[in-house]
Amino acid sequence: VQLCVALTDAAGNDDELFTVEYCGMNCTKKEDGTWTGCTGKKGGCKCYHENGKGDGLCLSTVYTDFCQYGPPSDSEIEAAKPRNTDTLSQ
After folding, report:
1. Three-class SS of residue 15?
2. Closest residue by Cα to residue 41 from 10, 81, 3, 68
3. Per residue in 50-81, is it b (16+ CB within 10 Å) or e — as a string?
4. What is the pLDDT of residue 1?
5. Lateral strand order in the sheet of 45-48
6. Using only C-alpha atoms, what is the Rg of the chain?
7. Three-state SS at 32
8. Model confidence over 76-90: pLDDT tens digits?
């Protein structure tokens, strides 16, 4: 699995994350001008190519804006910790 992660710097905001993942296949331009489909990631893969080129890469992209989430409180962190299975079974 190949994964590329980049923090967006255009807005100068470190709370934004853009993730690109290679879907394990390439796409090619067909004679009728359409492109072969990209499968995988439940339809989340798309063909990305340069203008004038006949081949491209199937990639999955995700943009995350962490500003939509508030800062975690200590109680939220404590609640998210894995619990000891011995404690849960009693």
Report:
1. coil
2. 3
3. eeeeeebbbbbeeeeeeeeeeeeeeeeeeeee
4. 45
5. 3-7, 16-28, 55-65, 45-48
6. 20
7. coil
8. 777 888 877 665 555
